[in-house]
């Protein structure tokens, strides 16, 4: 009988993740293993993977262990590493609650983008303190077919390019990353959000995620979109002195984003554990060859 590896599957607004609990960081979770696990036909399937490790046991997080017991070692579906995942951190918190490591209320989680405070509410919603956005200068144009749009750079720990479009269909099939001009604009890759207005302080997006392709939702992307939209609308909280709250519809649901006058951003949305089971370690090993 081969060794079994425990896993769970979860999603936040249909941005879905394979969850691998590994408190003592005992697994060698290579990029190839992540690709195999996230494969939707031959593996478990997911946009990304949440490796659940105690901060003290992970070289990238041990300095944060006094602030946050758990480290979200997030991986994209192509095996690459990203600084932050907004839907992932809610699902990560839901897993900790599900496993009995956390209850309702506040919880600190270490990420590559710093320690995030997560609030698990009674009604099942989870709110995350996402920190402040950075808005790097730079004129960039994103294109799909014959159409192009200016893109606003917003960094939420990870990079985003936000383009306002007339119709989400204009983003095309998004099978591959949309091209930019200049082509060298994002040497480390970028997540691209296409945005339309739905009403006052209400927008909708489609997203092409770095390392995952088109997904049904992106939490950091929704925050980037709220920030870019507030600047476009003349509703920058640092200027108006009042918080700006945006409802952001994603293909997989709805997220609510508030930016405060001090720049701090909060995101609220659902997080669901849908299954748990065991991975056959022999299968995983054989799928790496
Ligand atoms: N889906 C995530 C973002 C995951 C990381 C992203 N693909 C990147 O490479 O930066 C979210 O919900 O924020």
TrEMBL record:
Protein EC: 5.1.1.7
SUPFAM superfamilies in the record: Diaminopimelate epimerase-like
Alphabetical UniProt keywords: Amino-acid biosynthesis, Cytoplasm, Isomerase, Lysine biosynthesis
Catalytic reaction annotation: (2S,6S)-2,6-diaminopimelate = meso-2,6-diaminopimelate
Pathway named in the protein's UniProt entry: Amino-acid biosynthesis; L-lysine biosynthesis via DAP pathway; DL-2,6-diaminopimelate from LL-2,6-diaminopimelate: step 1/1
Active-site residue list: 85, 85 (proton donor), 218 (proton acceptor)
A GO cellular component entry from the record: cytosol
GO terms, biological process: lysine biosynthetic process via diaminopimelate
Family matches, as PROSITE patterns: DAP_EPIMERASE (PS01326)
Residues reported in the UniProt entry to bind substrate: 15, 76, 86-87, 158, 191, 209-210, 219-220
One Pfam family cited in the UniProt record for this chain: DAP_epimerase
Coarse class of the protein's main subcellular location: cytoplasm
Molecular function terms from GO: diaminopimelate epimerase activity
Site residues, Could be important to modulate the pK values of the two catalytic cysteine residues: 160, 209
Localization annotation: Cytoplasm
Assembly description: Homodimer.
Recorded family membership: Belongs to the diaminopimelate epimerase family.
Record function comment: Catalyzes the stereoinversion of LL-2,6-diaminopimelate (L,L-DAP) to meso-diaminopimelate (meso-DAP), a precursor of L-lysine and an essential component of the bacterial peptidoglycan.
Name the UniProt record assigns to this protein: Diaminopimelate epimerase
Gene source species: Streptomyces resistomycificus
Gene name for this UniProt entry: dapF
């Amino acid at each position: 009988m081969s060794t079994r590896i425990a896993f769970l599957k979860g999603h936040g607004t249909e941005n879905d993740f394979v969850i691998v609990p590994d408190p003592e960081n005992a697994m060698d979770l290579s990029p190839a293993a992540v690709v195999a696990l996230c494969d939707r036909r031959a593996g478990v399937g997911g946009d990304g993977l949440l490796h659940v490790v105690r901060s003290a046991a992970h070289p990238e997080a041990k300095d944060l262990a006094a602030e946050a017991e758990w480290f979200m070692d997030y991986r994209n579906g192509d095996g690459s590493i990203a600084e932050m995942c907004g839907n992932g951190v809610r699902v990560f918190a839901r897993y900790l609650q599900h496993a009995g490591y956390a209850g309702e209320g506040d919880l600190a989680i270490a990420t590559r983008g710093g320690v995030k405070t997560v609030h698990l509410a009674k009604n099942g919603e989870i709110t995350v303190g996402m920190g402040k956005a950075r808005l790097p200068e730079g004129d960039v144009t994103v294109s799909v077919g014959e159409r192009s749009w200016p893109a606003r750079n917003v960094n939420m720990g990870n990079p985003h390019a936000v383009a306002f479009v007339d119709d989400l269909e204009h983003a095309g099939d998004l099978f591959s990353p949309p091209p930019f001009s200049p082509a060298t604009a994002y040497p480390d890759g970028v997540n691209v959000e296409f945005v339309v207005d739905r009403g006052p302080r209400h927008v909708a997006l489609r997203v092409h995620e770095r390392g995952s392709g088109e997904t049904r939702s992106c939490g950091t992307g929704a925050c980037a979109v709220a920030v870019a939209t507030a600047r476009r609308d003349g509703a920058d909280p640092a200027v108006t002195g009042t918080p700006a709250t945006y409802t952001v519809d994603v293909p997989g649901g709805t997220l609510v984003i508030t930016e405060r006058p001090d720049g701090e951003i909060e995101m609220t949305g659902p997080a669901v554990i849908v299954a748990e089971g065991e991975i056959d370690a022999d299968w995983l090993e054989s799928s790496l060859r």
